[in-house]
Write a structure and sequence with these properties.
Elements lengths: L2 H17 L8 E5 L3 E9 L2 E10 L5 E10 L8 E8 L2 E2 L1 E4 L3 E11 L3 E10 L3 E11 L5 H20 L11
Antiparallel strand pairs: 1-2, 2-10, 3-9, 4-8, 4-10, 5-6, 5-9, 7-8
């Protein structure tokens, strides 16, 4: 076999490999654009599992909200039971548990940077879960707003100080 035949064979094998459907890359996933996103695991293994998601919200502090759900079919193998769901160590609120599990965290105050979402539980081996994320930068007044507010308090104080006192006489007959 000469060099050009070997190169053609490798090229043909590459083309054939691209045309053959492969098994889906089932695992944990996270898509986050800085303000919202989705996460999950579409291949939860049998027994106990633990998934950690690191979410970068950028440099600003803000409010973080998330939902997490799992719905089992009639097959017990598809059931996922969450044992721990936390964001930076703060527990999610359990809305519903059982064959349909739903948990939320709303308006958790977070500092900028990396946030850690930890999800653990048990599965029959054919389970999945997914969730949504939302992040909103905390509203911080700009310096001009603070200056205008301080000026307003000063103006009110000055007006109150300059106000003349009324002369009032009270007499009892």
């Amino acid at each position: 076999m000469n060099l050009s035949t070997g190169i053609r064979a490798i090229s043909m094998a590459s083309v054939l490999a691209l045309g053959v459907p492969s098994a889906a890359n089932a695992a944990t996933f996270l898509t986050f654009d800085g303000s919202d996103g989705v996460f999950g695991n579409d291949d939860v293994t049998s027994g106990t599992f633990s998934d950690t998601f690191l979410i970068d919200v950028g440099v600003d502090a803000g409010l973080f909200s998330a939902t997490l759900s799992s719905i089992a079919s009639g097959d017990p193998a598809s059931n996922v039971d969450f044992t721990t769901v936390t964001l930076n160590g703060v527990d999610f609120d359990i809305v519903q548990a059982g064959m349909i599990e739903f948990q939320t965290i709303q308006n958790a105050i977070v500092s900028g940077g990396i946030q850690t979402l930890l999800i653990s539980g048990t599965s029959g081996g054919n389970g999945s879960y997914s969730g949504t994320l939302a992040f909103e930068v905390a509203a911080v007044p700009e310096p001009a707003t603070w200056a205008f507010m301080i000026f307003g308090f000063g103006a009110i104080g000055g007006a109150m100080r300059r106000q003349r006192k009324a002369n009032v006489k009270v007499s009892y007959a």
